[in-house]
Amino acid sequence: GKFVNLKDIFYKIDFININLSLNPKEITVSNSEMAILTEKNTLIILSTENLEENLNKVKIFLAKNSLSNYSYLNFSFDEMVIAKK
């Protein structure tokens, strides 16, 4: 299997925290995705390979929508997948 570089993962977590004010309760990392459980119990999925592009999608989405209205947001695909509460 593919090994995960912890230094790279910590950099990406810092990058997310700097760019988004989500106050994550939990972050789970796989080979190509990061799952962020927010304090509002919304699960946000980001691609680790296109993190900057994904964060831009999140910023645009959150500028028009409240996290509290959603339970699941997946930005790791070209098309966004969402689930309302």
Structure characterization notes:
The structure is a single chain. Helices cover 33% and strands 31% of the residues. It is of the alpha+beta class. Strands 1-2-3-4-5 form a five-stranded mixed sheet, covered by helices on one side.
Secondary structure topology:
Layout: H1 6-19, E1 24-29, E2 33-38, E3 43-47, H2 51-64, E4 70-74, E5 81-84
Parallel strand pairs: 3-4
Antiparallel strand pairs: 1-2, 2-3, 4-5
Structure characteristics:
85 residues; alpha+beta; five-stranded mixed beta sheet; 2 helices; 5 strands; 31% strand
Question: Residue-averaged pLDDT, rounded?
Answer: 86
Residues in β-strands, percent: 25-35%
Topology as H/E string? HEEEHEE
Distance separating the two termini: 36 Å
Q: What coarse outline follows from CA principal-axis ratios?
A: globular
Going across the major beta sheet, what is the strand order? 1-2-3-4-5
